[in-house]
Amino acid sequence: MERRDFVVGVAVSAAIAGCSKTASLPVETDPAGPTSALDALLAPWTGSYGGTPRFDLVKVESFKPALLQGMDLIRAEMQKITDSSEAATFANTIEAFEDSGRALNRGMSVFGVYTSNLNDKQVQALESEMSPLLAAFDDEIIQNSKLFQRIKAVQTDSASADLTPEQQRLVDTHFRRFERRGAGLDEAQKIRLKAINQRLASLFTNFSQNQLADEEGYILTIDSEADLAGVPDSLRAGAAQAAKDRELAGKWVFTNTRSSMEPFLSYSSRRDLREKGWRMWVNRGNNDDQHDNKAIISEILQLRAERAKLLGYPTHAHWIIANNMAKTPDAALALMMKVWPAAVARAREEVADMQALADQEAVATKTADFMIEPWDYRYFAEKVRLAKYAIDQNEVKEYLQLDKLREGMFWAANQVYGLTFELVSGLPVFHPDVTVYEVQRGGKRVGMWYFDPYARKGKRSGAWMTDYRAQEQFKGAVTPIVSNNSNFVRGQPGEPVLISWDDATTMFHEFGHALHGLLSQVSYPTLAGTNVKRDFVEFPSQVNEYWFDTPEVLNRYAVHYKTGKAIPKELVDKVLAAKNFNQGFATVEYLASALYDMKIHLAATTDKAINSGDFEKKAMAEIGCPREIVMRHRPTQFGHIFADDGYSAGYYVYIWADAMTADVYEGFMEKGGLYNHDACKLLEESIMRVGNSIPPDEAFRRFRGRDVDTNALMRDRGFSVA
Questions:
Q1: Can you give the pTM of this predicted structure?
Q2: Set 510, 538, 589, 684: catalytic member
Q3: Which of 77, 375, 399, 438 could lock onto 567 through a cystine, CB 3.0 to 4.6 A?
Q4: How far apart are alpha carbons 167 and 362 in whole angstroms?
Q5: 589 is catalytic
Q6: How far apart, in Å, are the Cα atoms of 291 and each of 12, 205, 212?
Q7: How many Å apart are CA 520 and CA 124, to the nearest integer?
Q8: Conformational region of residue 582, where left means phi above 0, alpha means psi within -120 to 50, and beta covers everything else
């Protein structure tokens, strides 16, 4: 999931995927709605389904004037609040602030579509120009002394005011956000903080644009079909289509994205090509050219360290985690290091199994033996999987059709939450690939879900969820609009898209984020849906992964793309028996990144630049990372922590959320299973509906009846519990 907070009012703007074309379907329009590109970005969304974005009217050249106008509108709203002669109250200050910024928020939501997936040269230039301006405007609001004093006055008096628990939570949330971001600093400190934030905004943009440039600028081109040895037909088809898209018909292209390169590394029997592809993949942003990110990282770290000191924290890590469930870096590190030794031990066992197989093959083929290297890990892991469990992932993929699994997600959401999804035509979308669904329950609209599944030029890699609009009941009932975006490689026209078991799990994961947004039932948008603490936000999505491999879903929707027959029980049993296979690799690869993130932000200072590559070598040596495994995100492409502040000093959140997830799963099993009506109802009422209207630890206790048992995580991964 990716989220970009905006401090004013409905703080839910997010980077969203898209492309430069709009759908060719007839577009449903509202005569009373926006009629110009400027209005399309700022005016209220009107028409059917509670109003939806007018992508058909958007023009890149309108973003700058629209966003500047949106800022001016907020300035007027802030002045109205601060010029009031009345004493500050919840209504005239907190609610007035909550109701502000709606026009700019709409514009920022659509702007995120373009900066995430329409990032051509024109958009890149606009993003580079607007990012520091938007950062400066954020600081302008935060540093408005009159506004902060009114918010502080309401917070001071809130204990004696007649506020609901949610209203009290909203007051505390706004006050803490202002306080944490320097509203109480003196003027000289505010000036310096503003300069830091503007510079960071530019550096974040440069980092992400460099990463995108290397993902688009480097490709692995295969000229001869003989060089595709081991690569399954579905991947060959996608590579052939990618070549055609680049006017390289007759060749095969594997792009520098995870969705393309990881499968190639898993199946190609050409070790030299695996190494070539792997080096291309792990060196994104690290090629000593105009798109190199090393110097950018060093400056980001120094500026973050300086900002933390200004705000009264020892390090950036302390500043970030103080607002999370973990509270302190030590608590986050303690959980990671509880898991790390067992993960490393398992990884060493995996390497030994792979090395034995590689040695046998070398003898059988009379070729030179070799030590397992990082570009060999995925390939030999699949061979070991086949030898140990008789599982051929290519055989499994034949039952995992993208469209069918989307239907499976809908079915599971219906069983668990009573939701139905109806395809809608005629609404403006940002690319013909995008489909739109109305989400209902009991005949009443819950929200809208946009689905954008395919990789294309200009679209950042990965999979994510975002809000276009958050749920609220503050100024009348407003239903949410959310999207899921992926990067599946499209095959030949008319051919079903077959995906891996892991990719199917990821689909359910991201759909869990979407459900978290859709099921929200709070009053205020700042507290709605996924606007929760960073180490809680991954929890509902990870819980949703569990429904994918239930027999109820697989028997209906995991059907063979040719025969239509359901996946055989014996094949599923093999997959589930191997559930914890390669868990050493998966956990080490992730934790290496999370530990690096924490360590480098604890080590960063204002007076000494850190070389991110040198620090990587040092950190991996300190924790004893197996040499056959590299960080899941090496520093120069680690967009989670260097493309914005979002997951910085917070990549640990996935393991934190996983601890809660494993414990909740055991809770479902104790209550009778994942489809137990009472357990499903309790999950929705205690977790999915409440957003940030209650503290996350309280939300968890409402479901489980106690605090988290972190040993559940160890049991879930098949690691020994000390």
A1: 0.90
A2: 510
A3: 399
A4: 68
A5: no
A6: 30, 12, 9
A7: 34
A8: left
